[in-house]
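Field reference: sequence -> structure
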Amino acid sequence: MPKIIHQIGVVANVNEVYDAVGEAEAYSRWWSAKSYGECKVGGELTLEFPGYATHVWKFVEMKENELVVLKNLSGPEPWRGSELRFELKEGSGQVWLKLIHTVCDDLSEDEVLYFNTKWPTFLVSMKMYLEQGEGRPYPGDVQIQG
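Structure field:
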């Protein structure tokens, strides 16, 4: 399965960065319009993008201040069955957050390109949220298409 990989450095406490991907409500501060769920292994996370879609993810692995892995249970076709892996590592006065998005083999080149281009906008949104107190979640996110 193809993997889309991005990394960003965040000047914040590792606990805060972990909470941004390990607490349901935090996703609405940098990615979705609304987020809720049960943040534990086996728990589900719902992300709402009004006018676009609703995603449901399952927490499959969590290691405090190190790792959060989510598996997509439902949402738009390109997302179905994909996995998000958020890895955290402290170093050089910041927390390095690596995102590995494993997508399905049958995605078109355009769909892979979309994910590859769109993820940095949401990772920068998370960085803004953690460093400045306000991110740019949907629908206020940076648009990459007309």
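Note: The first strand starts at residue 3 and ends at 10.
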